[in-house]
Amino acid sequence: VMTVQLWLDRQVTGIDNILFCPDGLIPVYADLGNTTPDYSYGGRSRMEFVVAPARGIFDWDDQAIIDRVWSDMKRVFPQTTAGATIVKSSLVRIPQSVYWPKPGLDILRPTQQSPINNLFLAGGYTQQKFYDSMEGAVSSGRLAARALVNTVRESSYS
Asked: How many CA atoms lie within 13 A of 123 on its CB side?
């Protein structure tokens, strides 16, 4: 994952919320000048982008990544970005931010039903369809709850 911040010469979104983009490199972004008053930039946009997945472009030159993010932004907001320019930019690479298992290691992840009676595991590290992430944690929590309910139904407690 990488983050890119762009300080722009004008307001380009006016949206006070975190935004999601279904395609391109910027799945999550926000105009910090709108969402976080402490980051206000004199009425101009200060954009924060999460660049992910970034594995394929991690070794690109900073400017190439910034140009690509800006191109994606202009595609999403064509009218308001027309003529806008980047005043300042920053890019932060976070190489170990997301767990990514090597091929074949998924079988080593524990299931939600542990070998210890009445101990159930939940967390992104357990076996489920997502990598270690918020989605993985939620999915594994549901799987752990399902395993617990099934155990109770099958036991003499029911």
From this structure: 8
87 near 7, Cβ under 8 Å? yes
- CATH 3.90.660.50 domain extents, the chain: 2-93
Can you give the pTM of this predicted structure?
0.69
Q: What is the pLDDT of residues 48-100, one digit of tens each?
A: 999 988 888 999 999 999 999 999 999 999 999 999 999 999 999 998 877 66
> Which CA distances in Å does 132 have to 59, 80, 91, 100?
23, 37, 24, 8
- Of 12, 17, 51, residue with least CA distance to 36: 17
Architecture of the CATH domain 2-93:
Alpha-Beta Complex (3.90)
Q: What DSSP designation does 117 have?
A: T
State how far the alpha carbon of 116 is from the alpha carbons of 4, 87, 88, in Å: 45, 58, 55
Say if residues 100 and 54 touch (Cβ distance below 8 Å). Answer: no
Distance from the Cα of residue 139 to its chain's centroid: 16
Predicted pLDDT of residue 55: 84
